[in-house]
């Protein structure tokens, strides 16, 4: 069932395997396009990483509270990823769209599927960020030094699965060289925000 939101607002969905550079690209994009984009802040049951702030990076909540909100229909999309729940607030998104806003959603491919099922196709633009190879992805995960070897290998296995869903997206951007990927993403978003739904 499509959402009842009628507006000129649009959703820009950006997905990528863990370690593909999505978060860094979005942070850089917001420095130049922040005036026109609203970044959706996801709710998660995972613990904060060093430097992350509640309400800015994520809304952190307990697993039982998250499950209760699922039952209440509070999430537009949600998924269990690497043992933790992630979800997007339905009320916040629909309010932004009613006001004609452009909302940036940083979610996984499962969430992207759920979003596309709930909104008219002209209101959603989906972008997939992919690494050049799985080996490059593995090295990036090692270099960032945030995860154990076991977690890295789990993320690499998940990435191989996620890459099989890339063709479901409207656009695919290869993040081989950061500046080039950012240029491609920036040009694409500029085109999107200048063409209301």
Question: How would you describe this protein?
Answer:
The structure is a single chain. By secondary structure, the chain is of the alpha/beta class. It has a single domain (10-193), classed as Rossmann fold. Helices cover 42% and strands 21% of the residues. It contains 7 helices and 9 strands. A 5-stranded parallel β-sheet has the order 2-7-1-8-9, with helices on both faces. Strand 5 (75-81) and strand 6 form a beta hairpin. The two termini are 19 Å apart. Mean pLDDT is 90; it is low at 1-6.
Overall 3D geometry? globular
Structural category is alpha/beta
For the biggest sheet, the summary is: 5 strands, parallel
- The SSE string, one letter per element, is EHEEEHEEHEHEHHEH
Concise account of the structure shown:
The protein is α/β, with parallel strands linked by helices and 197 residues long.
Spell out the key features of this protein:
Rossmann fold; 7 helices; five-stranded parallel β-sheet; disordered N terminus; alpha/beta; four-stranded mixed β-sheet; 197 residues; globular
């Amino acid at each position: 069932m499509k959402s009842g939101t009628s507006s000129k607002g649009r959703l820009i969905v950006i997905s990528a395997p863990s370690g593909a550079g999505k978060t860094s690209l979005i942070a850089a994009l917001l420095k130049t396009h922040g005036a026109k984009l609203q970044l959706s802040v996801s709710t998660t049951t995972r613990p904060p990483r060093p430097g992350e702030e509640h309400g800015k990076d994520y809304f952190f909540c307990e697993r039982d509270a998250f499950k209760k909100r699922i039952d209440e229909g509070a999430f537009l999309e949600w998924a269990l990823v690497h043992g933790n729940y992630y979800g997007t607030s339905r009320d916040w998104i629909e309010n932004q769209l009613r006001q004609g806003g452009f909302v940036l959603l940083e979610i996984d491919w499962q969430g992207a599927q759920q979003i596309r099922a709930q909104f008219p196709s002209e209101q959603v633009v989906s972008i997939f960020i992919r690494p050049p190879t799985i080996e490059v992805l593995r090295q990036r995960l090692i270099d960032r030094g945030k995860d154990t070897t076991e977690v890295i290998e789990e993320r690499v296995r998940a990435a191989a699965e996620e890459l099989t869903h890339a063709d479901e997206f409207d656009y695919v951007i290869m993040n081989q060289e950061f500046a080039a990927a950012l240029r491609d993403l920036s040009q694409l978003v500029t085109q999107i925000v200048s063409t209301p739904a």
